[in-house]
């Protein structure tokens, strides 16, 4: 599978056409015909890219785009109905990565999707400022964490521990390893300190938001995973 695309487009015919074309290209596709529902899908699903129509019932494309941007850096390609400069500017201002004017050639849209996804992949490798797992975003430079756009207040050590866990998503980390990396080799205090701080993180994130990112691997240590 090449990636997941969420199509938010109220014109059923166009939405259906896009769905078939994207599936043919090997993407998995989810469709919404309404702005509000589309936004909710964008917030809850793990789409790799969103194709977003500008004129939508429920919430306008601009508003959907703004709301998604508050919590996610997923690439958004806007479909603008007219060849109108203000529409494009508004679309880009609201956080869209690119736009395609209707009527569009499907090849052009597919090409822009490939570019946006490539940029995104590079972004994950190069974007030194952001770690993401579903609704949880860690901004490295700013020492800031948000869940679903809400700020989580962490101490410096809690932040560093979470950062280390997220950087090693899907990898089991032993207590010793965590201790070395987060507290440093010269730490001679109680090794239980990792358990204590994991407990802090769990109460501030997993318990608070009813999520499950941090898992215990009995007898070994801990692992950070995307939510199922
Ligand atoms: Ca429309």
Structure, explained:
The protein is α/β, with parallel strands linked by helices and 228 residues long. The protein has two domains: 4-127, Rossmann fold (3-Layer(aba) Sandwich), CATH 3.40.50.2300; 134-224, Winged helix-like DNA-binding domain superfamily/Winged helix DNA-binding domain (Arc Repressor Mutant, subunit A). Helix content is 43%, strand content 21%. The protein has helices at 12-24, 35-44, 61-69, 85-93, 106-126, 156-167, 175-183, 193-207, and strands at 4-8, 28-32, 49-53, 76-80, 98-101, 130-133, 136-139, 144-147, 150-152, 173-174, 214-217, 221-224. It has a five-stranded parallel β-sheet, sandwiched between helices. A hairpin with a 3-residue loop joins strand 11 (214-217) and strand 12 (221-224). Helix 2 packs parallel to helix 3 (61-69) and helix 6 crosses helix 7 (175-183). The longest helix has 21 residues, at 106-126. It is elongated. The structure holds calcium ion (CA). Calcium ion (CA) is lined by residues 10-11, 53, 55-56.
CATH architecture of the largest domain: 3-Layer(aba) Sandwich
Distance between the termini: 18 Å
Q: How is the biggest beta sheet arranged? A: 5 strands, parallel
* CATH level 3 topology of the largest domain: Rossmann fold
Bound molecules: calcium ion
